[in-house]
Amino acid sequence: MTKESPRHTVVVGCLVRNEEGKVLLIRHHQRGWEIPQGRVEEGENLVDAVHREVREETGVEIELGPLAAVWSMVSPPPAVIFAFQGRYLEGALTPTGDSVEVAWFTEAEATQMVASSVMRQRLQVLLEFDGTVCYRSYTIRPYQLHLERGLAQWSSPAAES
């Protein structure tokens, strides 16, 4: 008997800012306000997936910036979420099937608009990005953070011996 390999959903998200420094949020029909994000399709790379998800959910094109955070949701169904920084390039805000509303907000407004504790903490990490990639591991129902590190804080096992 062979054990089935664990399966994780891979998700990408992006904190998009415009020239005024405002933050782009979508209102998902179930989860409420959040950053544009979604699943990576089979055979798709992360960069293409971010561009596609932002375009599909908001109608805009972005310049992709650095990877800012990685989250591991270890409760079922497990997922790995890669979140990037991005800059608005062009396009009119256009809601789609995944987003019933799309709008620009100041950082303070965005933080108030996001009701989900998981999404609000995700937004806060991205707003506070200082160049060091943040890693968090968590479970949901209830939300519980298990591990948080900046990737610069990791050291190799060889360096510890």
From TrEMBL:
Keywords, comma-separated and alphabetical: Hydrolase, Magnesium
Domain (Nudix hydrolase) ranges: 6-127
TM regions (residue ranges): none
Keyword presence, Magnesium: yes
Cofactor: Mg(2+)
GO-annotated molecular function: hydrolase activity
Family as reported in the entry's similarity comment: Belongs to the Nudix hydrolase family.
Protein name: NUDIX hydrolase
Species annotation: Geomesophilobacter sediminis
Lineage: Bacteria, Pseudomonadati, Thermodesulfobacteriota, Desulfuromonadia, Geobacterales
